[in-house]
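Protein in question passed on here:
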Amino acid sequence: MQKLNFQKGDGLLPAIVQDYESNEVLMLAYINEQAWEKTLATGKAHYWSRSRNSLWLKGESSSHVQLVKEILVDCDEDTVVYRVQQLGGAACHKGYRSCFFRKVDGETFTIKDEPVFDPQEVYKK
């Protein structure tokens, strides 16, 4: 199998996550080689958390798992697009379907979507 170019980005590559059916962009995360291999082995999206400095399975806390239906690789082999089935209806830890729930409106950000779940309830924080 061909390899991704993990030499770039200090071993972290961007993973754009897109809904398999609607093409909606759900989130952007980062993968390292370990996350890449776990994703390929399980069919579930795994990422590298830069804030926690650890591997994480998307949905391990919320049950909002991403089932990978297709993976696209860019021309430089240093960025991927995960086309996923988003279980639980939301990809964003703030409760929205997409992490891109705000839009630029003049000099401010306006929320354009409704939350799917209450993060206080799901994460018990």
Q: What stands out?
A: Helices lie at 33-42, 119-123. The mean pLDDT is 95.
